[in-house]
User: Fold these one by one.
Assistant:
Number 1:
Amino acid sequence: MNVMVIGSGGREYSIGLALKKDSNVNKLFFAPGNGATTHLGENIDIKNYDELADFAKEQGIDLTIVGPENALVDGVVDIFKDKGLVIFGASKAAARLEGSKIFMKNFLSRYHIPTAKFIETTNSQKAFDFIETLNLPIVVKADGLCAGKGVIIAQSKEEAKEAVTDMLSGKSFGEAGLGVVVEEFLDGYELSLFVICDGNDYKILPAAQDHKRLLDNDIGPNTGGMGAYAPTPLIDDILYKKVEERVIKPTLEGMKKENSPFEGVLFIGLMIVKNEPIVLEYNVRFGDPECEILMPLLKTPASELFYKAATRNLNKLTIEFYNKYAIAVVMASENYPYSNSKPAEIIVDKTVHELQLEGTHISYAGVSLIDEKLYATGGRVLLCVGLGDSIKEARDKAYMLCGQVHFAGKQFRKDIAYQALKQ
Ligand code: AMP
Ligand code: GLY
């Protein structure tokens, strides 16, 4: 079949890699792709989704897979479906689970799914009154999409009130901040769980852990994610069962009742507090860098999984994973996450010892092809991925690959998977 992937990051590159090694896949397209996806398929520069859907029809594209949330929130899935195309992703209505934190929190309350105590409001006095009732720290969230920056963990009531004022006035996040959620701080450890859904059935992927802070030991500013690993030993069968019964099933039942059955990837951000799963947030797409470790663990052909999910046939699929661990270490550019960096050429050393780098690969993200050479041009540039029979082996492989990759100003964390290795 012919497949198109919408997006341009490492997430979409890794989906492309999985499709590339899938014998069911004939032609592969990326819209818009990046400087390295051209090695896997053809990059398409069509921004308008109507036109992109027409292109998909003309080219006989059998399946489109959507990577980023913006495209989903903007309704790309509805546009493609209206034209009779098969597309894997959440509808515009279902994407509200990520597009509006107010919708999400109210949804969680309506269906009695465990979440942090909160209020949502557009009124600053109401927010201030609630802040007075909370212990420190206090969490303030902008309603809309803020590219991962819309959450403030305030260390004082004054700071929380200032965050509310700045959001509601439009100063900090424009329209995305005109509504806020104020909530209690949860103290525990975070897990990301990804569930492939077709509106009726679902398949749970191995649980992953992301490392959001820029620097080792989880300090420094929040980023899109500096590395991840899966499966994590921080979840066992009892916890899986709790998440399934208390979160996944009621979420999917709830979305059906709301007339927006959930199709696509449901990304559940959990805080585990005293062994109890509490929902921090939903996203309606794969995490990045989590996708880059889940795709190489997938044994089932990627085209089959996504096609069956997009056509309500997940019940006919037995999903299989390799019995391995995967780790991805993000290499970011010099000034990430503060500002852009100067483009820098990427050099990957020639492999001397083939065996050493077996089970490793690079997933390219913020890269451009300039005069046939690959340059680092984005914040998160690429990911060094290692697979192994243990977390330690996967980690050693990923870091061995990091040693082979060079560009001016590169920065990366040296402690990915440290919580799991401590266990
Ligand atoms: P979110 O976009 O809601 O997942 O928030 C981004 C990050 O902020 C999460 O990954 C957590 O690290 C942190 N966070 C959000 N809400 C809370 C909360 N109620 N308690 C503690 N940390 C939180
Ligand atoms: N890695 C977290 C995210 O994609 O939002």
Number 2:
Amino acid sequence: MAKHIFVTGGVVSSLGKGLTSASIGMLLEQRGLRVRLQKFDPYINVDPGTMSPFQHGEVYVLDDGGETDLDLGHYERFTNAPLSRDCNFTTGKIYQSVIQKERKGEYLGKTVQVIPHVTDEIKGAIKKLVANDVDVVITEIGGTVGDIEGLPFLEAIRQFALDIGKANVLYIHLTLIPYLKAAGEMKTKPTQHSVERLRQIGIQPDILICRTEREISKDDIAKIALFCNVESRAVIEERDKEFSIYEVPVSLVDHDLDQIIVDKLQLKANPLDISAWREMLLKMKNPAHEVTVGVVGKYIRHNDAYKSIYESLDHAGIAEDARVVVRKIEAEEIEREGAERVLSGLDGVLVPGGFDYRGSSGKIDAIRYARERLVPFFGICLGLQCAVIEFARNVVYLTDANSTEFDRNTPHPVVVMLDEQFSVTDKGGTMRLGSYPCVMTEGSLAHQAYDATTAEERHRHRYEFNPQYRSQFEAHGLVVTGISPNGKLVEIVELRDHPWFLAVQCHPEFKSKPTKAHPLFQSFIHACVARHEGKKKVDGQPGYVVTDEAVAVS
Ligand code: GLN
């Protein structure tokens, strides 16, 4: 029988519940347990797919096409647990299902209510992850205790322990212990209040994880334990990590969290072995190289809008023994200041996915700069589409070439809507979503990077490279090196006579892990390091003027 861990949060949002849940999953996996992870989000959108990245950050895409919360990205990067649409439920998705059942008459004339019908639906969602090959299901409840919209979820997880027995359920509450400068003290009161709120609902936390900037004294731990009715060894400090989020699981081990969970749930577990993870951290801390990569996007101001891209660059850095410094560049800044000014000194340029016209001309200028200056360039999704537009306009001389997403009446529609999209009217969940295979050309950069001629990657788009222009582009040097198995959809393009210029229609950033960098990201960072080291060599030779061109030819 699977055991259940419920992770809630209190006092403030953004405490890192997702990271902590992922870390718990990783530690239990390293102890030989088979885990599944799941997140509940109390907002009413059915999924985050229709929400602006300015509001919600990145939309994380799964193999099955589920558009989910970005915390699922942490789950995948930290663990090997398989994820599906059933791993992310919002209030909207729960209610959608309840209302569908009501319309079908499945409630047999009853008045449909939050308790028991909505709470039953939530409990059903938790049970979807239970299977014979699962030891522990970790369910994270989004939001903060005390939020009105989170109440049905808390009520459901309270009932859950009653249904399957408290011995099979563990409640972990994440909270904040702020330091008040004026008083020169850590404050435990907000935590006491937050736990009080939980207990009013009927949930007594078994473990408290206390987020803090400073060390929590033994006295404060004892005080928290007493007031919150939690064993003092189960009051765990989780201090801010200055270096990397990948330190979180290690610091939790230092406070015995894995053992406390194993004890409390009476799990049969192996001794912990996180040596590979520790090695990865060590490598990360002592890199031989440093490169600077510019990420040029529209949603740069939101820290989490390109979360998986930033993580994948870090992973590639670990694999290539390099610290990757990311320069976050708003595409519109390039439109104002010019590519030369904004991009000089970079070792690589990456243009990630995006939507809508705004910022596109800045992205196109950035790509032109990378192409002409022989700076490694990696385009992802909209990044590929902008690379195609740039090439059309500036190399093939197709004046005003564009994507029909940006200009419906362009004389040269080099990027067009996918056929299947013409009949689509709803916005939610209707893009080309999820995992699709791609066949690569032998000898291409992509083939070399993957060391394979086929790969499966996740997608999220409505537009594609217009195949009518393929031969014209190829004659000028932009070649198609990855294509769908039926030969219809262009998945990868590469530029000949450039050190590293590759763009993909898929989102490889959703399949990179700290212990296993994605091959395309790794190959890109390899090229950035080569460029950087080349620059150093040229720098060292007297009389050399270091321009971007001189470096590139070195
Ligand atoms: N807006 C483009 C499309 O829908 C690109 C999407 C993306 O970058 N995810 O095809």
Number 3:
Amino acid sequence: MDSRPIALFDSGVGGLSILREIARLLPWEDTLYFADKVNCPYGELSLPEVRGLSQGITRFLLSKEAKVIVVACNTASAAALQRLRTSFPKTPFIGMVPAIKPAATLTHSRRVGVLATPATFQGELFADVVSRFATDVEVVAQACPGLVEKVEEGDLCGSETAALLDRYVTPLLQEGVDTLVLGCTHYTFLIPLLRDMVGEGINIVDPSPAIARQTKHVLTQFDMLKTDALPGKREFYASGDALALSRTTSYLIGKEETFIEVQWQQDGKRLLLS
Ligand code: DGL
């Protein structure tokens, strides 16, 4: 029995979509969530910048006794997952890659659209997953600048969010895409809007339930499951604007939770965890 918490991090609220699934599947596990609000959005930073931030956050989460770390952000996974595994070899990491594999089994038109941040498409992880799983499928990459900010604002269905989403999705549909992969954890919160826009005939692939299953699998493999039946405790930390983040939790994950702001140290242009 290992009662240490499962830790997750993201640039902001996106990873809450993963936390929600983990809490459903493993309700007795304690969790820590970190939102790097001061540096959000990650999608417009360089990969080395996101790598540096991910290392600092990992050190913070390990100082809080995390037993496993879920990189609940495609951009941070693209930039840092391999390096994190090398730098912290005792800690199991669960990362995100755009779900091309399930999409390739769903598509009839053999055209799959991937919605993600610009940085996610630059990482080697994306090229690798495409070459492994899209052998007889055409993958159309669509970067979606601006959408993360809308989700951070809590604007999940307003006219500006709808116009942005429409601008990214309509060209994909015109190119014959019948399956859309959500390659950014923030976009899971836009599924109702997206479904309204595309109708029932288009597959939407949301990786969050699979990431929760993978987390359970890793905990089982490392004999790290918490086996008592007490409800899990949830802790939320942020690098800034804890109040705004706390306000979003009630409608994003159905319960008002309080973020605690952590101390930061100024380091060059970016803030790094002390
Ligand atoms: N949720 C992050 C992801 O999955 C958002 C990245 C960002 O902050 O731009 O990529």
